[in-house]
Amino acid sequence: MKTNLSSKQIRQLWLDFFASKNHLIVESKSLIPQNDPSLLWINSGVATLKEYFTGHKQPPSKRITNSQKAIRTNDIENVGITSRHHTMFEMLGNFSIGDYFKKEAIEFAFEFLVYVLKMDLDKLYITYFSDDLETKKYWQDLGIQDDHLIAGNQKTNFWDIGLGPCGPCSEIYYDRGEKFDSRGIELLKNDIENDRFIEIWNIVFSEFNNDGEGNYTPLVSKNIDTGAGFERIVSILQNGPTNFDTDLFLPIILEVEKLSDFKYDVDNYFKKDKKQTKINTYFKVIADHIRSVVNAINDGVEPSNTHRGYIIRRLIRRAFRMGRKLGIKQAFLYKLVGVVKSSLIYDIDEKKVAKIIKKEEELFEKTIENGEILLNREFEKNGKNFNIEIVFKMFETYGFPIELTQEILEEKGLKLDFDKIEELKEKHANLSRGKQHLGMNLAINSLALIKGKESEFVGYEHLEQTAKILFLANNESLLETTQEDEISYAIFDKTPFYATGGGQKHDQGLIIQGDNKIEIIKVFKDKYFNNIHVFKGVLNKNEEVKLIVDEANRRNLERNHSATHLLFKALREQFGLQIKQLGSDNNENRLTFDFPVSKKPTDEELAKVESLVNFYIQSSTPRKYLNTTIKEAEKLNAIMTLEEAEYMDPKNVRLVHFQGITTDLCGGTHIANTSLIQKFKIISCQNKGSGVFRIRAITTLEKYYDYLTQQVEQKELSLAAIEQKNRQFDPFYKMQVHRVNDLEILNNNLDLAIKQAKLDTLQLIKNKKKEEKTTDFIFNQEKIFTFNNQDFYIDFITDKQINSKQLAATLREEHANITFVLLQEMAAQKILVVVSSKTNNSLDILNKINKIFDGKGGGNKIIAQGILNQKEVNINKIKEIIWM
To answer: Does the annotation list 670 as a binding residue?
Structure first.
């Protein structure tokens, strides 16, 4: 085996080898996904190649190879604890897009490992799907002995997410010998977590299509997706006990040693000294996190309180805290940028990256000092009777992250009571809700005097409309002109904005007048059916403006609303026509449906309901509308709900009709064809009391993917905690941990499967109009931070097609206890900022931000919008402003 190779040489050997096999070398792309809102980060080697596999884009070659940097932070608590967990890693890949298949893919893997890297054939062990005898034969033909071939089952060696392209996979393991684990091949056969048999390669043979019902048919075009763990291969070739004991991490660790009072001990892997193990862990966390931080910042992500920025901030703060444990009291991470750069094959703007990191460290330095003092004081005072409310106080006073509090307490043998935390959040939210609509009611009463002046809703046909301003008001009276920094209300003669009603959330979008862009905060109806538009900015009565609805947001609302009707139909089919709709809530992220039933539906019954809804979706049934009266609707046996009756004029009602499925009274907006819903998944069914149950569900393949990913993450975290607590206790748990870790490899292909599964749906609608296009926004739980007993979520929206105001309002409805601050780049070197909250005064927050960044804008307590005149908005400063 070649043991004198550097990581750079190993990487280049991979690329050169596959280039010799007529593969096109594709350079590592940015960690920020391009034109793929389903991903927060590039998280696998295939993630940047999705468009080629789905057919959306012609590949430059049917054979591609790469070494792609990727980030995953769902296992952050395991970094430094296990031998192989990282937040940033490189995935070596070779891909066939309708070209070669099993035989060639297996031969390439064998040739590279045995003839290029000179690995001992006797050290290689292969797993394969038990029914895939073709793969087994190919390995046997290459000289792999039967005792080195392990048959796997559907769970371990068949990549399948339940819908779309799927197929068996074959994994390659390297045996590091008895010194890593005295147990033998049973470790692999019983799927037991270990450091002896290291999975270094996974080949997925995508050859079947799953129709969602477990029926598999061959794919016309078969593909190969390979993922090989770069850090793992380097560790084996450089004979490092762990991935950290290689030239990818050790130079960073040695640099940290120079700043610390402690030393890293490579040999402690075998010595297992408890004190040194902790010290080694601190070094490993720093080395891992700084690699992620440097690469992410270089790709354009800056520390912030939202989205990717929050993850980078969290990584910096965790690494900074580990430095304190090593005796490093001041900012030091920025000094490591150069050594990180030396291990990479692409350029890093060292000065810029170091400057950003240093600023973030200095910002956190005082925060962590004050927070730890307060936390330790409370612990010394009350011990295990730790007051949970101190967690909120720490965030209020010092902006101390809850996840860091959790880590510190766990080190002391305590755990946070997250149920209690949720109770405190709800309690605080309830106190705030009682005050938030006081001013709005005054405006509504004023506007309600406008009888006979009903505005025309044109949103069924148009998403843009030139309109005249009929009336304006603030929280006190009618106005001729509104103020820049004040929440105001408007009625237009025509509007494309749907007002909240019938279980559907209002539209979001912009009011445009010349260069002035004002974000719509909310739209609701008064008792005379006027659409009241809530906004913040300067408008003059009787002037003309252009109203633009956020199309992406509207389409997601339509998907969930239409899915609600299909769900209602399916429930009646399953439980009988006596099922009534007692309430629903549809926004762009999810839907809920309340209904009475004698006992809680079983999992089997819910599965049948879900399957029926997906059957309706796959039927590709077009939607039709019919305007009539309630009496005529009754004659047509249209289903009516209390919500619809409340929000519609009885003399002019609207029916939505999906032929052969359902005809319902509904004033909401709906998707043009059921196929555009793509996928329906029930997330939960909860008992709301008095025999009423609430189904919570999601739609679209992207959100289904997110759900699957979250399930994997939760299982990983749960099992990791068990394993960390007692690694030697129960082989069952070790088996489960390993199984979940295997999902890390499968996840490399998960995104691709979803996109390919989406292909059949997209083919059915490829001739539809452009208005059916959508831009998704992914809400990331990790971006939430808490201050003054309140949760905040700050994000920079990079997609200019997203209507930030609509997005903020939607997020507010979806997450009522969170205050959202969204930033979006505009023309003329300006930044749009939107603040939306049910628990804090959005206008006050916006005013603070405007003051610092020379901004202008207005709004109300619930939603506020402004324009910041500084191009380089310091996101970190925005969090500081909130703390002020």
So the answer is: yes
